[in-house]
Amino acid sequence: MTQTGWAMLALLVVVLVWAVAAYNRLVVLRNRIANAFGQIDVQLKRRHDLVPNLVEVARGYLKHEASTLQAVIQARAQAVGAADAARAAPGDAARIGALAQAEGLLGGSLGRLMVLTENYPELKADATMRELSEELTSTENRIGFARQAYNDQALEFNDAARQFPALIVARLFGFGSAPMLRSTQGPAEREVPRVQF
C-alpha cells in the first residue's frame, strides 16, 4: 500500500472513531434526559396521589364549593393522562408540552383550592389537611428541582447535538432536539392566587 493509501486509511479510522465517540456521547446525554424525566415522573405520581386525599378532606368542609373541587379532580385526571403519554415518549416535544400544560392547570386549580382553605379556619386547623398541604408543598418543591435538572440535561444534549461537527452525527442518526419544560405557558398562569376575607 502506498503512503497516500495509508494516510487515507488513517484518516478514515480517525473519522470513524470520532463518529462513534460523538454518537455514544449523544446516546448518554439522551439517556440522562430520560432519567431526569423519570425523576419528574416520580414526583408527579406523588403529587397525583396526594390530590384525591386533599380533595376528600376538603370535601366535607367545602360542600358549597363543589365546582372548585371538581376542577381539581378534572385537572388531576388530565395531568395523569398527560404524564402517561409523556412517560411513553419522554423525548417527544408535543407530549412534554401537553404535560407541562396539564400540570400548569392542575397547579392552578390546587392553588385555588388552597386559597379556599384559607377562608375556612376549621379546615385550615384540620390535622390531616395540614399534613396533606405540607406534603403537597414539599412535593411541589421537588417537582421544581426535578424540572430544573431535566432542563439542564436537555440543554446539555441540545448544545452537544447542535455543535459542529457532532451536528453531522446527530442529523445522520436522528437525534432531534430535546424539549424544555416551562412552569407556565402564559401570563394567566403566572398570576398568584389571591386570598380574600
Automatic annotation (TrEMBL):
It comes from the Bacteria. GO terms for cellular component: membrane. Its main location: membrane. Gene3D superfamilies: LemA-like domain. It is found in: Membrane. It is a single-pass membrane protein. The chain crosses the membrane at residues 6-23. Keywords: Membrane, Transmembrane, Transmembrane helix. This is LemA family protein.
